TrEMBL record, chains A, B, C:
One of its GO terms (cellular component) is mitochondrial inner membrane. Mitochondrial intermembrane chaperone that participates in the import and insertion of some multi-pass transmembrane proteins into the mitochondrial inner membrane. Also required for the transfer of beta-barrel precursors from the TOM complex to the sorting and assembly machinery (SAM complex) of the outer membrane. Acts as a chaperone-like protein that protects the hydrophobic precursors from aggregation and guide them through the mitochondrial intermembrane space. It is a peripheral membrane protein. This is Mitochondrial import inner membrane translocase subunit. One of its GO terms (biological process) is protein transport. One of its GO terms (molecular function) is metal ion binding. InterPro entries: Tim10-like, Tim10-like_dom_sf. It is found in: Mitochondrion inner membrane.
Automatic annotation (TrEMBL), chains D, E, F:
Residues 23-84 form the Tim10-like domain. It comes from Cinchona calisaya. Keywords: Chaperone, Disulfide bond, Membrane, Metal-binding, Mitochondrion, Mitochondrion inner membrane, Protein transport, Translocation, Transport, Zinc. SUPFAM superfamilies: Tim10-like. Heterohexamer; composed of 3 copies of TIM9 and 3 copies of TIM10, named soluble 70 kDa complex. The complex associates with the TIM22 component of the TIM22 complex. Interacts with multi-pass transmembrane proteins in transit. This is Mitochondrial import inner membrane translocase subunit. GO terms for cellular component: mitochondrial inner membrane.
Amino acid sequence: MAASKPPSALEKEQIFGMAEKEMEYRVELFNKLTQTCFSKCVENRYKESELNMGENSCIDRCVSKYWQVNNLVGQLLGNNQGPM
Amino acid sequence: MAASKPPSALEKEQIFGMAEKEMEYRVELFNKLTQTCFSKCVENRYKESELNMGENSCIDRCVSKYWQVNNLVGQLLGNNQGPM
Amino acid sequence: MAASKPPSALEKEQIFGMAEKEMEYRVELFNKLTQTCFSKCVENRYKESELNMGENSCIDRCVSKYWQVNNLVGQLLGNNQGPM
Amino acid sequence: MDKSMLADLDSLPEEDKVRMSTMIDQLQIRDSLRMYNSLVERCFTDCVDTFRRKTLDKQEETCVRRCAEKFLKHSMRVGMRFAELNQGAATPD
Amino acid sequence: MDKSMLADLDSLPEEDKVRMSTMIDQLQIRDSLRMYNSLVERCFTDCVDTFRRKTLDKQEETCVRRCAEKFLKHSMRVGMRFAELNQGAATPD
Amino acid sequence: MDKSMLADLDSLPEEDKVRMSTMIDQLQIRDSLRMYNSLVERCFTDCVDTFRRKTLDKQEETCVRRCAEKFLKHSMRVGMRFAELNQGAATPD
């Protein structure tokens, strides 16, 4: 592949554009996951500034389950590992 | 119009920029409408994977009313058919 | 500073990019503040189209407190006046 | 996009039309990725509420499948209605 | 935007200043379209709850008008307070 | 980013790699500013509910500090788990 002829200007734009969209997608996935798991796992009275053991294990499981939902929806939409 | 002199580089940027903003606006309108009508019309226990008759007619009316609200707000802001 | 040598093309891109991000940040801060204070201060039955005195003073205080929270969080993250 | 703008576009040379269609493609890709993320967030929020295990149980998985299917059908229906209204807005009526 | 950045901008040639002001214009257009979409979503969510007919009834329409007017007045007030705070932040206090 | 795309990137000349890494930096800056805005919004919404005075009282300030610290710790933990899952997805397993 590295030996093939260099991409044209338009192809380059498309490669950059796709890489940018892909990164935006991952950032948004991470942000939504972070917000959602915070709402589900962290008590919002903020009686202390540390995460307690229950919160920490809830967060780990929440991330794991969110990831599975992401993959499951990706399969339903016709690909194997999420949208890309 | 097609016979007028070609736009300058800056004018081109502005045409492209406006077209892009206009498209982003329509996409965002569609997404907000879709999310809002899903919340208003679809029962969120997901007992089946089909939309039933009641949900379908609710969706149609919801889209129609959302469209009217969009136009009404556009009129209040001083134009006739939404912001553009 | 104005007498220093002109920035290179790459430096220019970075200056423009940073200015753009900074503006996007301020716009988003303003929008979130506006939405949040509307939810906190304005009664959502809309019995009249004017803001009453109670709502107006609530809005002023809400903006002031939101600003303080913004600065407080900025300090916690290690700078003095918000993220920039 | 209103007509005067499209008229301007017609007067652009071929390379600009290519650029415009690339822009439209890119916006559509971004849009569908955002919709995907929103769907995942909504179905997760509505279907997953217990965190005693790190894998989805059968009930949660069924709920997510139905949620995603319903959302897609909903989204297609909204798309059709939205297109009808967009066309209607352009005619005198 | 902090001052050192503005100093850098001053040293840019004329064409870059034009580019910068075009960028600012574009961001403001995008911003006002987003605000518009948020306003529509909020007033729809707060005012429309029944879907037995496909047109707004009188009560819903009145509610939407008031909501939009209130939101605009609110938004202008927030804008003034926000500007005051932004200026205050630049002075020693 | 899948591998075929990365292969394409390898074949790009040096200036394009610089451009790519500038793009990544810019997205990360935008991302952290957005996260910051979301954190402020959430801690304000959860901690501030009375508007009889225009300054935060002691209790609100304590609440905001704890909220922000918790959110940052949470965010770091999620980041680690997320990275593990991303790596795991690339291995057979």
